[in-house]
Every structure is written in C-alpha cells, then in structure tokens.
Specification:
There is one protein chain. The protein is about 65% helix and about 5% strand. The chain has about 270 residues and is mainly alpha-helical. Strands 1-2 form a two-stranded parallel ribbon. The protein starts with a strand and ends with a helix. It binds fe (ii) ion (FE2) (2 copies). The site of one fe (ii) ion has 6 residues, from helix 4 and helix 7.
C-alpha cells in the first residue's frame, strides 16, 4: 500500500511539475478508494531541502512589475501571479501533511483534498495562460509565499493561523473584486475560472479554521486569543483589508476576529 508521507515527500523534494500534479491526483484517488496508508515510518526532513523549479525566477514583492488587467500583458501577468500562488499552494498543502505527524487521519484527508484542488486550480490557470500564449514560468514570480511555511515549520497552530487563516483567507477578500472587474470587461472565461477557485478556497479556509479551533480546544486555549497572538507574532505589518466579512464568516471566522483585524489594519 502506498504511503501518504512518502508521496508528500516526493512532491516536496522533486521539481517536475507534471509529475507533481499527477502524484497529487493519484494520492487523492488512492485515499478515496481506501488504498493509502497514514503510517508515519520515515523521519521528517528539514524544510530547507524542499525544492522548487528553476522557473519562474523569484523576485522580492517590491521588484515585481505592477499589473493592471486592462491590457493583455496585464491580464497574463495577473494569471501568471495566480498560477504561482496555486503552485505554491500545492506545496503548502503537502507540507502541512508531511511536517506535522501524529494527527488524526481526518486531518490528512482534509489537506490531501486541498492539495488535489490546488493542483486542479493550477492546471486550469495554466490552460488559461496557454490560450494567452504563455505558460507558468515565463514571467518572474513573488518570492514571499514560501517564507510563511518556513516561519511556521515548528508550530501547527502558527501554520494554520498564517497559511489558511491569513494568506488563503486574503484570497476571499480579493477574488470577488477581481471577478467583478472581469465581469465588467465581459471576460466570461476568467469569471468562471475565478468563481470556481473562490468556491474551493472558502472550503480551504474553513478546513483551516476547523483544525485551528480543534487543536486550540485540545490544548485548552481560547482560539480567538490564540489567533490574535499568532497574527501579531508572525504577520509582518498590519493585516491588509478590506475584509470580506460574509465569506470569512462562512469560512469559520467570528465577527469579533474580523472586527479585530479591521481595527489592526488602521493601527
Ligand atoms: Fe487554490
Ligand atoms: Fe487554497
């Protein structure tokens, strides 16, 4: 029987994009047919040996060209940036599985579903890019995303607060605005693609909220206080709004957490 942690290790330590996507879908199919073992046999390698492809070239956020979706170049730059977010999201989902052992099987089940959906998102965006004459890797990309994984490698609560409940939650604020912009332009294909991704991403944040609260409860911690503490510790600068209250509530945020984020934004 194949082992979830061996497949996770393969996906984190090899750079071939096609094989990574195929292995991710393969693992999800195995899990659905009850043919995947969750036994933790090997030791966990340090996060520093996780490998990314040579392309795209990674740049500091401040060195990234500004993108406006009104030109074809701007639209391709937007979708290329999104392809990169989805690509790193595949790694993030595998890494939370790989690095944090001894948790309930349902935890691994949930994050493998996320990995599978991120791989689908990446493929869909790459097709969209191809129609615009580009593939993932043709433009430079943002270097900052993986730093959040490195910063939180030792602490599952920090990982859940920062990755699904901060980075991915930010997508819930921004994607509806982008959908509106593409609607105004009459770009139906982009609207359908982003709407599909948004629906899944609400689910990812919800999974993050669920496990964050579950683990806080097990440790007899107040989850709202712990969330605020971790954001203050790991998030550099003030949280960025505006926050999409409606979607964040569906994804497991409380009104008081969102009130706090809004207050922090303006501090
Ligand atoms: Fe995604
Ligand atoms: Fe996601």
């Amino acid at each position: 029987m194949e082992n979830i942690f061996s497949i996770a290790e393969y996906c984190l330590h090899h750079v071939d994009i096609e094989k990574k996507i195929d292995s991710t879908h393969h693992a999800w199919e195995l899990l659905k047919s009850d043919q995947l073992s969750f036994e933790s046999l090997d030791s966990v390698s340090p996060i520093s040996i996780v490998k990314f492809p040579d392309k795209p070239k990674l740049l500091k956020p401040r060195d990234m060209p500004r993108r406006r979706i009104n030109s074809l170049a701007g639209k391709t730059a937007f979708f290329h940036a999104l392809a990169h977010i989805e690509f790193v999201a595949i790694y993030l989902a595998w890494d939370i599985i790989y690095r944090f052992r001894g948790l309930p099987n349902k935890f691994y089940h949930d994050w493998l579903r996320v990995a599978d959906e991120e791989a689908q998102h990446f493929t869909l965006i790459n097709h969209h890019l191809l129609e615009m004459g580009m593939v993932y890797g043709d433009l430079p990309a943002h270097s900052g995303l993986w730093e959040h994984a490195e910063d939180t490698q030792m602490d599952i609560l920090a990982r859940l607060a920062i990755v699904p409940r901060c980075m991915e939650a930010r997508g819930l604020d921004i994607t509806p605005q982008m959908i509106e912009k593409f609607k105004i332009k009459g770009d139906n294909e982009s609207v359908i693609l982003l709407s599909r991704i948004l629906k899944d991403e609400v689910g990812h944040v919800k999974i993050g909220s669920h496990w964050f609260k579950t683990f806080c409860q097990q440790r007899e911690l107040n989850h709202e206080d712990k969330y605020k503490e971790l954001i203050e510790k790991f998030y550099i600068g003030n949280p960025k709004g505006p926050f999409n209250r409606e979607l964040r509530i569906i994804a497991g945020f409380s009104d008081s957490e969102i009130d706090w984020l809004e207050k922090r934004e303006h501090e």
